[in-house]
Design brief:
Protein name: Transposase
InterPro entries: Transposase_17 (IPR002686), Transposase_17_sf (IPR036515)
Number of helices: 10
CATH class: Alpha Beta
Shape: globular
Organism: Pseudomaricurvus hydrocarbonicus
CATH superfamily: Transposase IS200-like
Strand content: 5-15%
Pfam family, one: Y1_Tnp
Distance between the termini: 42 Å
Number of strands: 5
Largest sheet: 5 strands, mixed
GO molecular function: DNA binding; transposase activity
Order of helices and strands: EHEEHEHHHHHHEHH
Length: about 240
């Protein structure tokens, strides 16, 4: 059976997750992390995909990206996969697959959910009890978005740029988003949307997607319209 094409909407960001096969470790040394990011930057430039946020965990990767066209993300991930797996297998004298099948992906409603996905990605090391605060983890875009460290890989999204009139104000406002823990309902919505290859967005956003593309977002977990009574009840439980 042919695979359904992934959801795509021009100008819409995507949350990507790629996991190690059988939950195996994919990064053993700092050199591995550096190599992956170098391959990612090269592929992102080649296939015109903007990288807004990332985190490299020991056995999986999260990316928040915006492609210029429908094929960009797929081509980027294929190129990245080939280059990094070749590097990893040669270095550690192994053979076979490294990643667990196809990467997972979801479309992200920029107006309401984009910064939430930024937080979700960069808080991964905190939820995994690897660090106490996102600032302590070196292999995520928090170092750029909140601290101001130069990372050439990163292209700021318009929603991030809207946080302030200059870098200092944006970084300060971004850091304020990381006070406290994310709501469980938000975590669940993000995870389910990516697992189902669907949409993280409001009812209005999903309707707009269906009208523009002529596709039904039938597998979409709509993440709860934040204006709805049902969502508000879940949100504050």
């Amino acid at each position: 059976m042919a695979r359904m094409p992934r959801l795509y909407l021009p100008g819409c960001a995507q949350h990507l997750v790629q996991r190690g096969n059988n939950k195996e470790v994919c990064f053993l040394t700092y050199a591995d992390n550096k190599a992956y990011l170098a391959f990612l930057r090269k592929a992102a430039v080649q296939y015109r995909v903007a990288i807004h946020a990332f985190v490299l965990m020991s056995n999986h990767v999260h990316l928040l990206v915006s492609p210029k066209d429908e094929k960009g993300v797929g081509l980027m991930m294929q190129s990245l996969g080939r280059q990094y797996v070749r590097y990893f297998n040669q270095k550690y004298e192994r053979t076979g697959t490294l990643w667990e099948g196809r990467y997972k992906s979801s479309l992200v409603d920029s107006e309401r959910y984009l910064l939430m996905v930024y937080q979700y990605i960069e808080l991964n090391p905190v939820r995994a009890n690897m660090v106490r605060h996102a600032s302590e983890y070196p292999w995520s875009s928090y170092q750029y978005n909140a601290v101001g460290r130069k990372i050439e890989l990163i292209t700021p999204h318009d929603e991030y740029l809207a946080l302030g009139v200059d870098d200092q104000e944006r970084q300060a406002n971004y850091r304020s988003l990381f006070r406290g823990k994310m709501k469980q309902v938000d975590l669940q919505a993000i995870r389910e949307a990516c697992q189902r290859a669907s949409i993280l967005g409001s009812e209005k956003f999903i309707k707009n997607f269906e009208e523009k593309t002529g596709r039904k977002a039938k597998s979409a977990n709509r993440g709860g319209d934040r204006r709805s009574i049902k969502f508000r009840k879940l949100r504050f439980q």
